[in-house]
Amino acid sequence: MRPxxxxxxxxxxxxxxxxxxxxxxxxxxxxxxxxxxARFLGYEITIQHNDTKKTGRYRRFNGQIALRVPRDVIKxxxxxxxxxxxxxxxxx
Length: 92
Description:
By secondary structure, the protein is of the alpha+beta class.
């Protein structure tokens, strides 16, 4: 069995036994958080990693979970306010 199948099986077993939840095999996609973003309820969930960013006294924010709005969603929301890629003028 491939590692993804094993972890999906273990996750489904944990959810079923401990939380009494069912995992949809067709809808569930295992995504590595460091290399890709998981889309959930219209957001992208990722893990932040940056070795050059220092906050406070040399603490880095590596490993924190980030909840982001996907670019295609931002473009779709901005589209009604743009004319040929530029902001529309206010109509009086």
